[in-house]
Description:
Blueprint: H1 6-22, E1 28-33, E2 38-42, H2 51-64, H3 69-78, H4 80-86, E3 102-107, E4 110-118, H5 122-135
Antiparallel strand pairs: 1-2, 1-4, 3-4
Helix pairs in contact: 1-5, 3-4
Amino acid sequence: MSNISLDAAEEIIAAAHQRALALGKAVSVAVVDAGGFVVAVRRPDGARPLTPDIARAKAYAAAVMQRPGKMLKKWQESQPVFFSQLSQLPGASMPILAADGSVTIKKDGEIIGGLGIAGGTADEDQAIADEVLAALGYELEFAAWGVTGTPAGKES
């Protein structure tokens, strides 16, 4: 299993802060490796105090669950009891946070980490994450659980 490098994490963070600044937002950005371990977290001037922890939890969930928060939200809605217990597992070092602004980092078909953005609205956090990862050449499509082949949302 490959993991995202510190240089790549810092590139993502810099691009996310630049995009957020264009929106007039101060957001915290966290990047974790494929196992959910922190590679880098940045909270710029003006970002609310709790946003680094929220960004880290979003990044962690996207990495260890191997799906972005948008997909996790659908799972949480369909199985709330099961999903609420995930954070209680002995191996879970952080809460499993199903939220917008939580995106799995995938390159060349391999999951290498997770990205969490916190500080804007849910839509802003998600847009920043998606736009930055797409601009840097990361993949944003994931197959639905238990399904091989065509990624979710794609027509055959």
